[in-house]
Amino acid sequence: MKVMDEFMAGLRTGEPMNFNRLKIMPIFVDEDRQLPFIDLEEALKKGFIVITEVSEGGSVPDLEVSNKSQDDVIILDGEELIGAKQNRIVNTTIVVPATTSITIPVSCVQQRRWHYTSRHFGSSNSVAYASLRRRKHEHVTENLRASASFSTNQSEIWRDVEAKVGRMATASPSLAMSDMYEQSVDVADAELREKVPHLEKQVGFLAFIDGNFAGGEVFGSATLCGKKLQKLLRSYYLDSIDPGVEFPAISVEQIFAQVQNAKHEQFESVGKGTELRFEASNVQGSWKLVDDVIPHLIVFPKMSNN
Question: What is this structure's pTM?
Answer without folding.
Answer: 0.95
